[in-house]
Amino acid sequence: MAEAAILRQSGATAFGRAVGAVVWKDLAAELRSRELVGGMLVFALLVILIFNFALELDVRTRSAITAGVLWVTFAFAGTIGLNRSMAVEKDRGCLDGLLLAPVDRAAIYFGKVLANLAFLGIVVAVVLPVYSVLYNVNLFVPGLLGVIVLGSIGYVAVGTLLAAMAVQARTRDVLLPILLFPVVLPALIPAVRASTGILQGLPLEEVAIWIRLLIVYDVVFLVVAWWVFDYVVEE
Amino acid sequence: MIEVRRLVKAFGLKPVLRGLDLHLEPGEFVALLGPNGAGKTTLLRILTSLARPSLGEVRLAGHRLPGDAAAVRRILGVVSHQPLLYGDLTAEENLRFYARMYGVPQANRRIDEVLTIVGLDRRRRDRVREYSRGMQQRLAIGRAVLHDPQILLFDEPHTGLDQEASAMLDGVLKQVAGEGRTVLMTSHDLLRATDLASRIDILSGGVIARSISRAQAEWGDLPSLYRAVAMPPERHRG
Lengths: 235, 238
Prior knowledge:
Structural class of chain B: alpha/beta
Number of helices of chain A: 8
Shape of chain B: globular
Strand order of the largest sheet of chain B: 6-7-8-3-9-10
Distance between the termini of chain A: 37 Å
Order of helices and strands of chain B: EEEHEEHEHHHEHEHEEHH
CATH superfamily of the domain at 1-75 and 185-238 in chain B: P-loop containing nucleotide triphosphate hydrolases
Number of strands of chain A: 0
Helix content of chain A: over 70%
Oligomer: heterodimer
Distance between the termini of chain B: 39 Å
Radius of gyration of chain B: 18 Å
Order of helices and strands of chain A: HHHHHHHH
Shape of chain A: globular
Largest sheet of chain B: 6 strands, mixed
Structural class of chain A: mainly alpha
Mean pLDDT of chain A: 90
Number of domains of chain A: 1
Largest interface: A-B, 27 and 30 residues
Strand content of chain B: 25-35%
CATH class of the domain at 1-75 and 185-238 in chain B: Alpha Beta
Low-confidence stretches of chain B: none
Number of helices of chain B: 9
Mean pLDDT of chain B: 88
């Protein structure tokens, strides 16, 4: 019994250590190159700038479309990041290096998810104030930030899994958005609805259903990805 | 140490390995030669647990693949023609990352040792993308031996290296192989293989067509033997 408990504990320690190692490696490499976040940021800022010029909005319409514009921006910019994050592993054969490590491969997945969340978090942290200034909308509402966190987790959970799948293909740049957007739609719709409700000042009970949907989506896809990641990356 | 029996690997309907048998004793250094497409890399990917066999039995140090893949990965060091290193990290950071992934005890001391073995101690804080191809391959060997594996698998480690870098790599290969490890290396370079290995296996037609050890008389006539086995007359004409 005690032996089994020690084995379980050492397994959990190795898992946590591997997750931490992958996160550290991705953040350290990005800190040097700034290729991934740089690309995501430029793209995200261009998208909100284009929306700003394309839509000449009155105050009422503005609050109705803000959530949509934000989530389109996060989703498109996120795709660039997800693609790049896996391409770095594939290009120099590093994915094989990761898969050769004697750790549960789900640890690699969760490490990549956390690193991708950090990258998307940086984009969100820059986009929100820029959007607030351009559209004259206050986006620093606690409820909205909570929804962005939940939506981002679902988006990155699915995106990291599908990026690992798409990276094996020659047409990975095209393949990822085609695979990702249909699957991530059930997370984007409640994220947009909940964000709109919060920005329009609706009571919590009215947006709670969308928030619950987001939580269910996050849990389901994190668990599914945990189960299937090993098969996805296997040749 | 490595035991492969009747290994079959097919991609779709195309068989690459057709009932291959291979046996390596502990401490043996075997070079696996064969023309392009013979299945050398496929065999190594199966031995590293990166690919599954279609049929047959594969055991490394008694662990069966693909069932005991995690146990096999713990005792295995792999060097391929790609360095499996992150260009934006320094040599030291790359090794630190892999040390964490492998749970290497006293990682700092081991990283120092490995960087000294591969002769990159003075360049430890340089980014890997600033390294020459030869230096990257030496660091790749350092990465492969970091967790002190019993078995080393080299997949054409000399690819893309000039003569000087290849000779330097050979020195490192001999050193890490000379520490009692079992080594299987695929190569196109017959001269290099005969210099490093104690046995040459020739892979042709999806099986080990010939196996020649250093003690055998044919060792001296390997080039013509290789041509005869790996490139039969109809292929010469082609």
